[in-house]
Amino acid sequence: MLAETDVVIVGGGLAGLAAARRLHRAGVPWRLVEAEGRLGGRVATDVVDGHLIDRGFQVLNTAYPRLGTLLDIDQLNLGYFTSGVLVRKGDKLLRLVNPLREPTGGPGTALAGVGSLLDRLRFAALATGCATLPASRLLAAPETSAETALRRAGLSDAIIEELLRPFLSGVFIDRELSTSSHVLAMVLRSFARGRIGLPAEGMAALPRAVAAPLPADLLDLDTPVAEVTPGRVRTQAGDIRCRAVLVAVDPPAAAALLPALATVRMHSYTTYYHSAPEPPLTEPILLVDGDRRELVANTVVLSNAAATYAPAGRHLIATSVVGPTAPPEPTIRAELTRLYGRSTADWTHLTTVAIPEALPAAPPPQGRLRKPVALGEGLFVAGDHRDSPSIQGALTSGWRAAGAVLDELRAG
């Protein structure tokens, strides 16, 4: 079978769906092929014993600029987290919050025993600068690693090791904080400007909402792609002839289809999901380990933010670990007993989700974060490896790649 269209999009993750939305809006004939039987790529939600289990701990930031182009965020019915963190230090839980969003927590944050008062003031100044300065200026600053940028901001070893490394390691999936300072600046900008939440129906509600306006008969699921060449996409169902091909799959798969692409290193992440009859905390807030044990990146009671994540009478806890080696569940449970300061004996281990290729590494130099999407000969690429490693990066790269396709089609 030989089909024809103007543009073939390979991959139905966030980048591919964003590209399809732009092409569809422009009235250009297109078709999307996806190897899996669902849309969403790395953003997915399963149901286990009545609990919503995302494919790894993920959240949505309302400050992502591309969201507003693609959906009405109110339709996701977000449940929000507290704008801050809890830090376990010895026998204390120290609460640090964004005073702009949690004014009553400001005095407690100023007095919290994580780093010094000067540390907290310097970090507040850093975050404020990222939130208020133009993005172009942030991305024009000299680029270093995230850790170097934090130290150059005058932050002490104490606040980096007790707060920022455990927190940011969960964001970047990079405990070494070797991620670019430009990525750090944009992350701090989004955290300062937006709110963090979970859709009531799980993170899979995001790709569903992006895909909703697209005609179902143009989305070919369960259709693996064997080969991509200029003007042709070869699938198990037959070949599709086209004017342009936009590859929007994960970096390893993209490199297999497009040998001209450089190899992208991927970070690994594992999330342990537990169900409890009582929540170990009543607040929807992230808990990190300030005791420098470097095992758990973070843990959080998801159902405190979105009650729909757990059935009545139960509470869902997600605990994430950075790195390729996943410790056994009993080891994690023992850490959770220490972190929450209460017994976990009556918790049920629902599942462990290990993602070997969770997020692209983004060491310097990343420049202005926007890597080329046009490869020549009618071939294009999109994904969070072409922009910032994030949901925002995936959506933006797809939108940008579709724009490059439109420019070439109009010129040709």
TrEMBL record:
Q: Which GO terms describe its molecular function?
A: oxidoreductase activity
Q: Which Gene3D superfamilies does the entry link to?
A: FAD/NAD(P)-binding domain
Q: Which InterPro entries match?
A: Amino_oxidase, FAD/NAD-bd_sf
Signal peptide residue numbers: none
The record ties this protein, via SUPFAM superfamilies, to: FAD/NAD(P)-binding domain
Q: Where is the Amine oxidase domain?
A: 14-406
Q: Which Pfam families match?
A: Amino_oxidase (PF01593)
Instruction: Fetch the PANTHER family from UniProt.
Output: AMINE OXIDASE
Q: What is this protein called?
A: Amine oxidase
Phylogenetic classification of the source organism:
Bacteria, Bacillati, Actinomycetota, Actinomycetes, Micromonosporales
